[in-house]
Structure of Bacterial membrane protein YfhO:
Amino acid sequence: MNRPSWPLSLLAQRSAPLLALVLIAVVMLGANPLVGETIAPFDFLVQFPGWKNTGIESPVKHRKHSDVLDAKLPSWRYAREKLRQGELPLWNPHVLGGNPLLLLVTRSILTPAFAAYALFSNEAVGLYTSALVNLLIVSIGSYLLFASLTGNRLAALLGAVAFSYSGFNTSWFLWHHVNTSIWIPWVLFFAVRIAQTGDAKHVPWLAIASTLMILGGFPTVAVYGYIALLLLFLSWSLFSRNTYRVVILRGALGVAGILLSLMMAMLFLYCLDESLGRLDLSYRRGGSAFRKAQDLLLYVQPFREGPLTLGRTGYVGLIPLILFLPALWLTLRRRLEWRYAWGVSLVLLIAPLAFAWIPMDYIRQIPLIGTSMINRLILIIGLGLSLLSVLVLSTAYQRIGKKAPGWATMVLLLLLAVQVVDQRRVFQSLVGHVKADTVYPATATIDYVRGRIEPLQNVIADRGYIVSGVVSAYGLSEWYAHGFHTPAEKRLLEGAITRPFITPTASAFLCSQVNFANPLFLAYLGVRYVLCSDETIHGGKVEQKHVFDTIDLSQGESSGLSLTGERVVQLVELQQHVSFDELELRLESVNVDNRLGVRLKLWMGTELLTETAPCSLQLDSVEAYFRCRFPSQILLDKGSYELEVLVEGESASASLSAVVYPSNSPLLQLQVGNRLSERVLGLRGYRRTNAYIYRKVLSGDNDSYIVRELEPGVVLVENRLVNGSAYFISSLSGISDAQYDQLRLKSYSDTSMQFEYIGDESGWVVIPVRMYPGWSCLVNGKKVEPALFNGVMPAVPVRGNSRVGFIYSPTHYAVPAAVSILGVLLGLLLSFKAQSINRWLTDHYKTN
């Protein structure tokens, strides 16, 4: 047998760990996109009333992942749609009254994960690929970092698994947090290479990794990465035993890389500062989810408190924990060798912050991280524990492997397998896969709204749709979507809904909190549709609405029909749709001592649609009847149906007779056995109702609304005042009618829209969006400075018939954009001139 050539063997040695990381990532995810599985928290979504009628069932793992559904993925979906249409997604009109999209780093659009998501026409496959890409980036970067520090590939593999699937990365895997944290190992890897070699060719790579970390979408996590980098530099400079000139020279190269990355990211940092600068963030006072010493046990027993939670999961596996004490011993024995010193500092210096062992009042004074939940620093602790485990294993391998290299290798492979199995059980408990058909499934109500809503018109969705912002994933605009609001916006939004905000950035409410009594206020916000769920689901008051009655007393006297004999079926031919969830069956006589059970079955042809629970017998001084409740609301379209009365049980003394009435309607017939009767059962249909909505809206108290029920458990309220995209008001003060019929939308895109005001009065054209830097208003082609209606929306002054334009052209980004371009050019120049720089540095070092 020919032995493989050396180059092939070297290629195999280098590629085997990378292939192993790919395999581990696939195993960890556990989904098969080829059979319609993906990675996303939609199992949580289909549990809510807004999607209950899809009939999709999925076990729930992602109970704490609503932010992904209402904040991250709606923006991703819209950006994906625009890119696939060949347009740059500069602006998202569907959230918060409009918000920057491409340039705002908190949307994570400029990330490999989003690129993978947008690449595939099949959205479920895109979501899976996005998750896989993130795992490969973090695991390969971690492997390269640890391998560069030890040279031991197997130990580096174990460390890469430990950090990549550590508690922080597992908890926040579907968030922007991990789109950011995956680049931390790469930043550290290129910094280590600079420290080891002093080669300038690593500087632009450090800059690129740092820039990608900034663009990841969660700035605080990027700061965590820079903290790890600072501790790396301090440990290396103090304990590497290099001359101060080497420390200064290579430290300068590292600083140059970070400064270069700040130049590259300047445009995006400027946009982020602009966005945050409009807000009052004084309420943000970071804390820690860890408060007691016993919380340390969560590192050993992650499930000790039951199902895992996001803020209290820091598990890195038992192996790194077991090796921590040997790592401390080796650190002292090796006289603080810089790699060990760095690893220990990542744990011991960060733990007092993450666990709030330092008073929070002091921690809150730390710039950039004091206003965030400080327990998220467990990310850096996990990195430190992973690094120390690699160092200990590589040291042990060097000693044992000299005598028994085969056995040492087998032990490392076994430990790697244990690490994978150990962390997979935790990873799968928080990042389980779901069916592809759960990905924002279509519903009758949402489809109806999407087919009729016009540009700039908004919707409000109540708690039946989880949290505000979720339906924006369907291209519906929501003022209340998850995100930061200015104080003026909050005042405006709290006027339309009582106490809408459950956190400073998220809102969830019942429709009873919506100010339906003032449709004009909703019209100011451009709210055309309100999507309401049945409030009884949320503990609201139960009321009944009488839907239909099969009885016409004018046609003759009633009689009785025994239900304990032949099969009794009421035949129904519907000419219009009807909805009910409860039926009452009138009784002629009943033996109260009987032990018979009665249920109703609803058939369409030979197909059983549904059946009631056992009916409850109701007796009063006037009548007796059975009350029969269906498990969910029934919505029947036109067609033929059969309602069967099923009597169960046996009792010789029981008697049960239903009331039947004459009927000459061809739409109602009674079948007893095989015979058709000229009488019909006495049936009354009811629908349980959302108490507030039906009382205030359906009762006809306000003709400004139209109410539709397109599916069980959901009510759609349409504001008839909103029949256009912008409106005219005569005055900015007081109460003025929102006259939508005075405006005609001539053209529309995300970043440019044209209206025609057809009235002849002087006043203001209000565009129901948030006024944001970069937008400008034109009247008859001339730029005008808009006022702010209710402190939020642009109000353009007009005098008679006018053409009004609203254009997004952020020319004030020109300077930061130029800095970013310059940074990219400097990075390219540095890449080409790295060898020349190295020679100059060498000559200068020798000269001095």
In short: The first strand starts at residue 37 and ends at 38. The chain has four domains: 6-25+90-272+288-430, 442-539+690-723, 551-681, 727-809. The longest helix spans residues 123-150.
